[in-house]
Write a structure and sequence with these properties.
Blueprint: E1 10-14, H1 18-30, H2 38-41, E2 42-46, E3 55-56, E4 59-63, E5 72-76, H3 81-90, E6 96-97, E7 100-101, E8 106-107, E9 111-113, E10 118-119, E11 124-125, E12 129-131, E13 136-137, E14 142-143, E15 148-149, E16 154-155, E17 160-161, E18 166-167, E19 171-173, E20 178-179, E21 184-185, E22 189-191, E23 196-197, E24 205-208, E25 213-214
Parallel strand pairs: 1-2, 1-5, 2-4, 5-6, 7-10, 8-11, 9-12, 10-13, 11-14, 12-15, 13-16, 14-17, 15-18, 16-19, 17-20, 18-21, 19-22, 20-23, 22-24
Antiparallel strand pairs: 3-4, 24-25
This protein binds coenzyme A.
Length: about 220
């Protein structure tokens, strides 16, 4: 799987936080063989209400209202699944979302990932895997065979997903969480750092521990 980037439009990174800066470095790795002037081509996009005209890593910032889908493509560099979904809702319908896949990702031809996804270095996706749009797979995630995963999926670094798992929309895995094979997880579930999932999760919420239990607040 390769990145999908439109070199005829400027490249926008929505977000101004730490992950957005990491996505910029990922973008540099993805376009290293292109003759491109990053300073001209890339913009960080911030919400109008928080907008501060500044530079991030030498790159200009623009605000949401300056975003023009005819001239700009975007990736949403916001780690939290549900916030990312909300932000996609703020962009115009015709927005073109780029997909970034780090050159050292290992991925067979039998893997599909939806538009807007960001797959960072060291990730391994084996075979017969389908993942929806706007997924973020962070450093050294592994996903096994025959998984079906809905939109806005997020993994923090080091997450291990075994084969034949089925996840709903907006599922988030914290750093080093892992899942036994054949597990189903419903929509809007967060697994905390180091969580180990050994049974299906049928109720939305936050789960922690080994084996995971629901965090009641
Ligand atoms: C699970 C998580 C979402 C809970 O966050 P929260 O709702 O703010 O919960 P709190 O920090 O208030 O913690 C509530 C309780 O759960 C415990 N807890 C929190 N996260 C835990 C985890 N991952 N494993 C075990 N226990 C955990 C806390 O110690 C606390 O216990 P206490 O009530 O006995 O003191 C969060 O801790 C987490 O793991 N997020 C993922 C972070 C991550 O991977 N980031 C990667 C960025 S790239």
């Amino acid at each position: 799987m390769k990145s999908k980037i439109n070199f005829n439009k400027k490249f926008c990174i929505a977000g101004g936080g730490g992950f957005a800066r990491e996505v910029f470095t990922l973008l540099i790795d993805c376009v290293k063989d292109e003759n491109i002037n990053l300073k001209d081509w890339v913009r960080f996009v911030m919400p109008d209400k928080d907008y501060l005209k500044t530079e991030i890593m030498g790159i200009e910032t623009i605000c949401d209202s300056e975003f023009n889908p005819n001239k700009h493509q975007v990736v949403i560099a916001i780690g939290e699944s549900r916030v990312r979904k909300k932000i996609v809702g703020f962009f115009p319908k015709e927005t073109e979302y780029a997909t970034l896949v780090h050159p050292n990702v290992v991925c067979s031809d039998w893997v599909e990932i939806g538009e807007g996804s960001i797959i960072t270095a060291g990730t391994i996706l084996t075979t017969n895997i389908i993942i929806g749009k706007q997924a973020h797979l962070n450093l050294h995630t592994t996903i096994g065979h025959d998984c079906r995963i809905a939109d806005y999926f997020t993994t923090a670094p080091g997450v291990k997903i075994s084969g034949e798992c089925y996840f709903g929309e907006c599922v988030y895995f914290g750093t080093n969480a892992s899942v036994r094979q054949g597990i189903s997880i419903t929509d809007n579930v967060t697994i905390g750092m180091g969580g180990v999932v050994v049974k299906n999760i049928i109720e939305s919420g936050v789960y922690i521990g080994n084996p995971v239990r629901k965090l009641e607040k």
